[in-house]
Predict the 3D structure of the following.
Amino acid sequence: MRIFGWELKKALSAPVVWGFLAVCLLFNILLVISNTYNRDYVQYISGAVAQYGKKVDDEFIEKLKDAPPSDERDRLLMSLGVSPDDETLFLNGSSQPEKPAQNPLQGIDTADYAEAYVKKLGLTGFWADLMEAKYDALQPVVDRIVREGADKDLYAGEVTNDLHRQLFDILLRAVLTEGMLAAFLCMLLVLGAENLHGTDSLVFSTQKGRRIVRPKIGVGFLCGMGFYVLLAGGTLLVFFLIFDFSGIWNASVSSQFHTLTDDVMTRPFFTWGGFTVLEYLWMQLALGAVLVAVFCMLGAFAGLLFRNTYAAFVAVLAAGLLLLLLPGWFHSLNWAGGAFAASLSPFWVWNIQGSWFTDLGGNALWPWWEITGVIISLVLLCGLLFAAGHWHRRKDLV
Amino acid sequence: MLSVNGVSKKFGNFTVLDNITLNFENGVYGLLAPNGAGKTTLIKMMMTLLFPTQGSILWDGVDIRTLDADYRDILGYLPQNFGYYKSYTPRQYLNYLAALKAVPKEQVKERVDVLLAMVGLSDVAGEKMRKFSGGMLQRVGIAQAMLNDPKLLVLDEPTAGLDPKERVRFRNIIHSLAKDRIVILSTHIVSDIETIANKIIMLRNHGVYCCSSPAEVCSILEGKVYEIPASQPVNEDDLILSERQNGTETLLRFVSNIPPDAAEPVKPNLEDVFLYVYRDEGVGV
């Protein structure tokens, strides 16, 4: 513990670490405050949900119509297809009064999705069977969401896609990217500190010797995870101080207003777990933390392999870029096996962060694909780290 | 006792050291060779930073790779160009290294105080090391090497970059540390070791050229070193070693088998031998 304490002190006394953290937080805050035009509307929706319930049905609309007039109320009513003045449908200029659909997602056949992705990717045989099996597994999830009426949740009305994108696709993506980078660089910095300071000969010839990499890896891990928590905590605190989610937390992310778009189709945002907004946020943060841990391990592996911190950074960056290009390249070569194997890499899992826990379209062959990818990365890196540690104990420190 | 048994070290196809055999017992050893002769490679193998391509290094008959941490526990090492953390004070630096050297926590403060006093840095123990001169840093280096009261103290080029006053001070410190332990002092500066080393080890052509007392080493040139006024000619085959002022006269010091008549025989010293042995390796006047 003595050495762990010293190494932690050394890592935390590096100005570059805190500088990086401050720049990231500042960037994230700028991301939040530069996009607040929906703030009042989201606050109104939150209040409305708290008062009238989270499901859009006749009762909700009646209560909303009886609510004190305001621009936000009128906007919400119009988004639900109800004119705030004459109670007529406000869609396509129709004057027929019409209620919102009772089961908006009812009748969805996920086999149609499977067919579209099989066709788009040119999958055949085994791979096509896996894709079809995945969408077969999605059908009961869809049926349950419809049965429970989760699809009728208001979420954030017609700004759901914008708000969800801002929180999960932009902010959490920024937090995750920064957290991964911070964890990776921090680990490299901790492991490369002696080389940078020219103290390696001195430190590795002490009684502790090369075994010092163990507390160093522990410190790198602690710092990496700590910075992710600070980045996530700081960024989300600012976001939720600006946007009132009190009435939104319990809405299903599979609300009728929420869609997922890729280059094949736009479809409802189904998650395997049928998550609410709060559950989805926790799941995103949790898997993000595991991915940060993966990058800690990647940093440790590179740090043991390369004595030069900059060489380690460049090597992993190059490997990452290659792994991001591989799935597309393999698909263009009609090598589905290679493409899907490459899309289990931690870099690709990062790439699809905005769609985690959904069916992932053509990016996945079975449910919870991203979790499979992260578990494989963890197991693989554990093995690589063990081998690198063994090699490090026997290598010349020239 | 430290034994280097038939140790060779290659980097790729390049042989740095070939079949080195040396035995060390308590006392000061001067490892003398020009830069690039393999001194640091030999020392790094003794410090377990490099591993021999062939042969083994034994401490009391046991391979140091087997002893591992137990062996490093008896080591004190001042590397060439040793690094430090600029924002640390000498006390913080020594405390950190004491932890790495497994010095019992309750003994650290006293040990650090004693060593800082020994190297004359007590007054600046709380100041950042970024402000320190080369001599002060080197004294911190000596202090850290002594933290665990090592049985084997290895100092690699310890006087490089020091001014003459600091070098004298440094030699005095080494002299005081030389009791009851093996001290290996690697240098290419002869004056660093000629007065304090019990044995001189010279490396040449990737191997050991000699491992003897300074007197025995100097006897290589016994009866072959002369001085002559610079105005007098020397033979073409004679090797000029150095020159010095004697009053208003400049004297040439040289090695010769058949000296000119005007030449006066003088007692050879270590520097003469160093210049003579490494005459083909760019060393000399």
In short: Chain A touches chain B at residues 2-3, 6, 10, 13, 194, 197-209, 211-212, 394, 396-398 (CB under 8 Å). The beta strands of chain A are 259-261, 266-268. The longest strand of chain A covers residues 259-261.
